[in-house]
Task: inverse folding
């Protein structure tokens, strides 16, 4: 079977959903009236209460029980029901002939016999279709694919099943035609009749005696034809599904024959044998082949039938006459049957949930609503699936209680829930609110004034219908699963009815008011396909659904739920209610209440009515009176003169219904004495009876005169509004001079609210006028106060809410156009005048070429203060930016020194963003031209500065002359000027460098060349000077190769110059007085190589340089002689003294040792491995004294000659010149000295040579010298100085070698004397490494420590008591001996030491005064006698250098500087003091003895 409509259900669009606020929700009818313009266009709408509105469920669940209706889903749909009825008729047709209907299958689909029957009938019938061969077209129309010979199958099925029924319906005489037979395919499914009419035998029980809606199924009961009793057809009732059970087989039950009138015969009654004769052949034989009709008991032979029957048919059989009667009976109205059992709410819920979960095979809460919706519309459209559900509908709330709490009800609410008792949305209260028209209906109408309850299950549905009297309805879902709604707007009601009648005409032919019975639905998609607007929604628990007047609606339940519904009517419904009565009259449908009675009841309360209701009722009553007047006049004309007044209020509605149209009569009715209990309305006077009208009686409630006062009261109430409206119109239309104040308009609004005038357009317009006036006044006040918005005065920003000038002008005009006076209007008019004045000033100022920025700013401030959006402000701001830019350019041009390229570019960038203007463009052109020129010269100057080869100074000066005229700051050009200036100055210095034949100094020359390289100008003298510098550098490299040792740490100047640092301490105390060669303090400080180099570089000529070097030579000799004496004294100490530290490793002497011939310091042979390379007979110099290669003099003289050719002075050259001169002088001195004239050796000490090590007395340790040295005590001072100076010369001289050989040979002892004296060949090693006396330690010259006494002053060694833990660093285990033995040996040598020291003192200090020497000797003796002095004096220790650098003054001033003068006490303490701390000058410290305060006080006490 195929369907003409789509299989897949498409949900219609959603209806509007409203969510009122609490304020809106407080007035139900006010909110419904507010949403009515929107919602009535869809027919239904959904309202969600505000959050928190949850009324308690007040229904008594335990008491509630009901009998639901049974709904077979495929019987609900109109077209499906038509098909089922058709199939039932076909099945009945064949069943009465003893055949069973089986529906064939075509293309594996059940054949739709109804569609096939309709198509063949539309095409002209079976004969025409066969004749014109249209079966293929019919197959295509039914949805079968072409080309499969489906048409022939359809023809065969039609001819076999449908064509006999067609002939029967057409009235063909089957008695004279071939008897039809039905041959079925064994594969065809047997059709089971639905027996729709018979199932309506059980009718629903009336639940409300007064309610009309409870009788909606009144027309659905099974009606018996007149003159026919139902008990005459027991077999038929049984077959049709009666509830009477069949007890015995068919053949055993006596057949009740239809009673027909029998004509009397003369022969008397026929015998029973004569009654059973064949009506075809007239014979009574072959009784076993004689068939008896189950309907009329007529007899027929099986072989007399056409075609003959071979066997007796099983079941009932009807003759052709009875068949025509049975099939021709009219159909019974369709209705729902009641369920066989009674349910409680709990049992029904269990059944409903079980059904849904079993059907969808999933939990009920997981089934999607879309799936349930599509399945519902599929089930109602199929005839192959029979799904039955039950629906507990129209349950009276007054019997079991409403779901909402009611006052004085059994359900007790909590105090916080008492508001729900009086809530307007409580469905018990909504129909009787003051604004509801139903309040004036006196009867309690179930379903309209009293809510009905609905208990649904899945698929249970409510069919297409409109509410009684076309009223509003409200449905609230208390709990449960959703309810799906479909609705059509009221204006489409007739369209929907026409579509359903056209699609299912068979149903409406037998039941014209089918849609009023709530038993038929139709697929919304089908209605929408025919142009009917349909909308849907899902109503969830806690939501309301409102249906509007005459809006068809239907739907179904998604599952088990509980809903409550009631009707209500508002004033806007009044005209529709009267129109509905006329519609009911045309359908002969009863009314639920009398509309005229309600109108009259309302009119009696005219004074208390709301104006809107009064106006609506006044219009309705006017129509009612006019219609009643015309009807009564027509009745009078018909001759009805009898009348009587009847109080129809006291009669029940059933006793005053029109016998024809079933309308409830109230104002009047017609009765006749022939049937006093029957009455008709004045519209159907002709249908009362056959009596003449003159015998009729007019029964009336009111006379027309009695109706007029009621009408006048309504009119008066309604006209009070008209008076108010005339005042309003007068004020609103007043001219400019007669305008009222705003307070007058407000008083009219107050009057309307007091008298409860309706929300008419005039009232809304008045409110709108007042609202506009108040808004305008408020806006005007804000504009005047300047508080309407935040303005950006400083930035010139625009507020988003500012009014434009046109808006301000329009606003001012609007203020004057208002129907009332606004006091702010004159002030805004003045503001508008100021704005217009500002616009004029702006136009004048903008007309200038370039106004000043101050004038523009002033006008801008004035415009911003107006608080109006002025287009001139933007132009003024634009011109202000332009003016400021032009002024900035002009200001920058007035100060060329500050007008840089970046400044010009910045100004140009700022100007580019400005709006075009002639002045701006001119200024921009000049600025860009200046920038172009400046960039050109800047680039040119930069290129000239970085050009290679460099430009001449004349070229640069020419460029500078051109740049001087450019009014801008050009860094490259200024740099170019500076370069030219520096070049001129350099040339001047270079020219003056060799003026007068002066020889330039290398430092000056190098500095000049270095400066010249940084000047980007071609300098002609530079090449010559650079050549000189290169020659000098080459000379220095040659000299360095000649003199410097490999990997030497000394510089060339350091090698060539006399040494200014020899390792001894600087002589800054009175010890200088004891030196061999006294010298005066030099004016120039020459304590370091840097000082010497500085002195040489700053010397004016060669003579001054030679003098400076001479001073350095003098200091060199002094320091070196002191150093020699000090180092020699360490090795010449008595055995009782502690061991000294020697060598580079600063450890005690041990093993084979070497002694430097120059500094006289001893070195371990392992620390100086290069000693073996020294030729025999040459002096050995230590690494500190050997500073250069000492080239021969013949290699040095060419260096000096080449330097003289270069004619450049440099420190190395001066030092080399001095070295050669010193060498020459030394050679002359050597020639003058005769070694043979020296004193004989006498008792001079022998030179120690290579020998076996000698041990001490206690075998503490020993060492020996590998190289012989010239003893100091055997040389004269002149000879020693000559030898020292020769060793200091950095050249190799044969004279020096000869001198050394002579001296070494002179002091060489005989071979046998090497072992003569133990003390001449041994040096005792003390356990303590501290020096024996203060004269021995020497410090690095870089330390600013107190100076030591001259080593020429020999003092006896003091006895030191060393702690037992001292000095474990020497690595010689033999030196750790007991301190007692050392002390004893020191004491034994004490006297000898004093005696040996005396001649040495005389030798070392020949120039000292004798008293001075005696004093020094006494001090030494005193120290020898009192060894505790040396032990207690911290100055004796040389282990800590800090001890020698501490001033002993109590208040030391801590002097700082490069040279600090010290003085030592000549008393017994020998402490050192700063000269400035004790008030001693340098001359006093050098020439006089100094005694400190401590020693002076001791002497005084002694």
Result:
């Amino acid at each position: 079977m195929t369907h003409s409509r789509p299989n897949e259900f498409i949900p219609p669009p959603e209806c509007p959903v409203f969510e009122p606020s609490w304020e809106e929700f407080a007035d139900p009818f006010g909110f419904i009236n507010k949403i009515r313009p929107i919602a009535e266009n869809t027919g239904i709408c959904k309202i969600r209460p505000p959050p928190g509105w949850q009324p308690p469920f007040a229904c008594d669940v335990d008491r509630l029980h009901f009998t639901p209706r049974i709904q077979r889903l495929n019987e609900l749909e109109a077209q499906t029901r038509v098909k089922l009825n058709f199939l039932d008729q076909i099945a009945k047709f064949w069943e009465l002939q003893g055949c069973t209907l089986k529906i064939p299958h075509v293309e594996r689909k059940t054949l739709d016999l109804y569609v096939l029957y309709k198509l063949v009938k539309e095409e002209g019938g079976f004969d025409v279709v066969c004749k014109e061969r249209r079966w293929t077209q019919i197959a295509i129309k039914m949805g079968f694919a072409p080309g499969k010979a489906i048409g022939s199958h359809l023809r065969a099925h039609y001819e076999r099943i449908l064509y006999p029924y067609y002939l029967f319906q057409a009235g063909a005489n089957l008695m004279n035609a071939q008897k039809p037979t039905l041959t079925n395919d064994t594969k065809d499914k047997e059709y089971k009749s639905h027996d729709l009419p018979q199932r309506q035998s059980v009718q629903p029980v009336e639940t409300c005696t007064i309610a009309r809606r409870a009788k909606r199924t009144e027309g659905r009961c099974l009606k018996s034809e007149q003159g026919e009793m139902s008990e005459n057809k027991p077999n038929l009732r049984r077959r049709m599904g009666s509830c009477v059970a069949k007890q015995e087989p068919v053949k055993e039950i006596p057949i009740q024959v239809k009673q027909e009138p029998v004509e009397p015969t003369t022969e008397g009654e026929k015998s029973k044998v004569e009654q059973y004769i064949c009506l075809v052949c007239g014979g009574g034989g072959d009784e076993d082949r004689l068939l008896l009709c189950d309907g009329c008991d007529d007899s027929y032979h099986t072989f007399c039938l056409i075609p003959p029957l071979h066997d007796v048919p099983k079941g009932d059989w009807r003759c052709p006459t009875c068949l025509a009667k049975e099939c021709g009976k009219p159909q019974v109205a369709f209705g729902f049957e009641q369920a066989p059992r009674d349910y409680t709410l709990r049992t029904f819920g269990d059944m409903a949930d079980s059904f849904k979960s079993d059907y969808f095979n999933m939990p009920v809460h997981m089934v999607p609503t879309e799936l349930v919706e599509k399945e519902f519309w599929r089930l109602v459209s199929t005839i192959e699936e029979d799904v039955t559900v039950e629906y507990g509908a129209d349950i009276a709330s007054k019997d079991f209680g409403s779901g909402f709490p009611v006052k004085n009800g059994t359900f007790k609410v909590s105090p916080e829930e008492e508001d729900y008792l009086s809530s307007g949305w409580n469905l018990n209260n909504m129909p009787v609110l003051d604004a509801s028209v139903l309040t004036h209906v006196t009867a309690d109408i179930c379903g309209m004034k009293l809510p009905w309850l609905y208990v649904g299950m899945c698929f249970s549905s409510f069919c297409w219908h409109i509410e009684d009297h076309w009223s509003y309805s409200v449905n609230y879902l208390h709990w449960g699963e959703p309810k799906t709604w479909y609705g059509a707007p009221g204006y489409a009601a007739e369209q929907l009815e026409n579509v359903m009648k056209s699609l299912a005409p068979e149903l409406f032919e037998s039941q014209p008011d089918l849609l009023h019975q709530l038993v038929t639905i139709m697929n919304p998609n089908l209605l929408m396909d025919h142009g009917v607007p349909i909308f849907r929604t899902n109503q969830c628990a806690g939501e309301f659904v409102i249906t509007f007047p005459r809006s068809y609606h239907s739907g179904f339940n998604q599952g088990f739920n509980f809903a409550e519904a009631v009707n209500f009517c508002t004033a806007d419904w009044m005209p529709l209610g009267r129109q509905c009565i006329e519609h009911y009259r045309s359908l002969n449908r009863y009314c639920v209440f009398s509309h005229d009675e309600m109108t009259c009841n309302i009119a009696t309360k005219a004074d208390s009515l709301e104006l809107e209701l009064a106006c609506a009722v006044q219009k309705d009553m006017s129509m009612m009176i006019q219609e009643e007047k015309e009807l009564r006049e027509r009745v009078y004309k018909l001759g009805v003169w009898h009348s009587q007044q009847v109080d129809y209020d006291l009669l029940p509605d059933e006793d005053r219904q029109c016998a024809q149209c079933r309308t409830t009569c109230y104002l009047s009715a017609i009765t006749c004495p022939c049937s006093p209990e029957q009455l008709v309305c004045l519209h159907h006077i002709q249908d009362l009876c056959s009596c003449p009208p003159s015998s009729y009686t007019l029964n009336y409630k009111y006379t027309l005169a009695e109706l007029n006062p009621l009408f006048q009261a309504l009119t008066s109430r309604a006209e009070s509004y008209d008076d108010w409206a005339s005042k309003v119109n007068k004020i609103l239309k007043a001219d400019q001079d007669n305008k009222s104040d705003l307070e007058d308009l407000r008083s009219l609004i107050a009057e309307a609210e007091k008298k409860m005038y309706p929300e008419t357009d005039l009232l809304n317009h008045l409110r709108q006028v007042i609202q506009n006036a108040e808004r305008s006044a408020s806006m005007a006040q804000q504009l005047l106060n300047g508080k309407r918005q935040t303005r950006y005065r400083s930035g010139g920003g625009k507020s988003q809410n500012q009014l434009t000038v046109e808006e301000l002008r329009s606003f001012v005009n609007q203020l004057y156009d208002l129907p009332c006076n606004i006091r702010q209007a004159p002030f805004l008019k003045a503001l508008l005048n100021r704005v217009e004045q500002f616009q004029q000033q702006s136009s004048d100022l903008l007309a200038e070429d370039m106004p000043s920025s101050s004038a523009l700013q002033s006008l801008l401030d004035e415009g911003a203060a107006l608080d109006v959006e002025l287009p001139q402000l933007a132009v003024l701001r634009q011109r202000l930016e332009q003016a400021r830019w032009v002024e900035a350019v002009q200001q920058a041009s007035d100060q060329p020194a500050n007008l840089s390229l970046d400044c010009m570019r910045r100004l140009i960038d700022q100007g580019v963003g400005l709006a075009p203007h002639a002045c701006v463009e001119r200024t921009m052109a000049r600025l860009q031209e200046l920038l172009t020129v400046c960039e050109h010269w800047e680039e040119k100057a930069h290129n000239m500065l970085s050009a290679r080869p460099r430009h001449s100074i004349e070229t640069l000066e020419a460029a500078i002359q051109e740049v001087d005229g450019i009014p801008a700051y050009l860094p490259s050009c200024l740099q170019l000027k500076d370069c030219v200036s520096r070049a001129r100055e350099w040339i001047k210095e270079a020219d003056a460098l060799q003026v007068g034949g002066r020889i330039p100094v290398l430092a000056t020359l190098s500095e000049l060349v270095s400066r010249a390289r940084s000047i980007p100008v071609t300098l002609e003298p530079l090449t010559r000077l650079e050549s000189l510098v290169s020659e000098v550098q080459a000379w220095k490299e040659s000299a360095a190769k000649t003199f410097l040792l490999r990997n030497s740490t000394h510089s060339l100047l350091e090698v060539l110059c006399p040494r200014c640092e020899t390792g001894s301490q600087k002589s800054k105390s009175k010890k200088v007085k004891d030196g061999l060669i006294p010298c005066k303090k030099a004016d120039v400080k020459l304590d370091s190589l840097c000082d010497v180099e500085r002195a040489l570089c700053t010397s004016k000529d060669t003579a001054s340089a030679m003098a400076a070097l001479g001073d350095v030579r003098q200091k060199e000799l002094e320091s070196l002689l002191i150093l020699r004496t000090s180092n020699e004294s360490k090795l010449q100490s008595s055995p009782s003294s502690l061991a000294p530290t020697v060598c580079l490793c600063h450890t005690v002497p041990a093993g084979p040792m070497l002694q430097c011939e120059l500094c006289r310091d001893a070195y371990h042979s392992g620390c100086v491995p290069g000693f073996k390379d020294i030729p025999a007979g040459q002096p050995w110099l230590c690494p500190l004294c050997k500073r250069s290669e000492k080239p021969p003099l013949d290699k040095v003289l060419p260096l000096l000659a080449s330097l003289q050719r270069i004619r450049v002075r440099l420190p190395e050259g001066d030092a080399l010149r001095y070295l050669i001169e010193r060498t020459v002088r030394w050679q002359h001195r050597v020639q003058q000295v005769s070694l043979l004239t020296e004193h004989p050796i006498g008792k001079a000490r022998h030179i120690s040579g290579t020998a076996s090590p000698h041990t001490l007395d206690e075998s503490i340790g020993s060492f020996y010298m590998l190289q012989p040295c010239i003893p100091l005590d055997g040389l004269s001072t002149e000879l020693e100085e000559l030898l020292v100076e020769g060793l200091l010369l950095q050249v190799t001289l044969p004279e020096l070698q000869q001198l050394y050989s002579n001296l070494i040979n002179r002091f060489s002892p005989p071979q046998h004397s090497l072992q003569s004296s133990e003390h001449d060949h041994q040096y005792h090693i003390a356990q303590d490494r501290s020096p024996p006396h203060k004269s021995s330690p020497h410090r690095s010259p870089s330390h600013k420590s107190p100076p030591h006494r001259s080593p020429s002053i020999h003092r006896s060694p003091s006895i030191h008591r060393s702690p037992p833990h001292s000095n474990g660093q020497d690595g010689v285990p033999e030196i750790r001996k007991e301190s007692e033995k050392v002390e004893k040996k020191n004491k034994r040598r004490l006297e000898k030491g004093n005696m040996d020291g005396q001649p040495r003192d005389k030798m070392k200090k020949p120039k000292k005064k004798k008293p001075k020497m005696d004093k020094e000797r006494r001090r030494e003796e005193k120290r020898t006698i009192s060894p505790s002095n040396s032990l207690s004096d911290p100055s004796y220790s040389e282990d800590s250098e800090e001890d020698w650098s501490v001033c002993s003054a109590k208040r030391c001033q801590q002097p700082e500087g490069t040279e600090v003068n010290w003085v030592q006490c000549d008393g017994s303490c020998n402490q050192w003091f700063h000269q400035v701390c004790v008030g001693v000058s340098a001359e006093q410290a050098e020439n006089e003895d100094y005694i400190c305060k401590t020693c002076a006080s001791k002497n005084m006490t002694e």
